[in-house]
Amino acid sequence: MADYTIVFDGGSKGNPGQGYGSYALLWPGQSQPEIIRLTFGSRVTNNEAEYDTLINALQDLVNRVQAAGGTPTQVFVDIWGDSQLVVNQVNGTWKINKAPLQVRCNQARALLQQFGFAAVNYHPREESVALLGH
Question: First-to-last CA distance in the chain?
Answer without folding.
Answer: 27
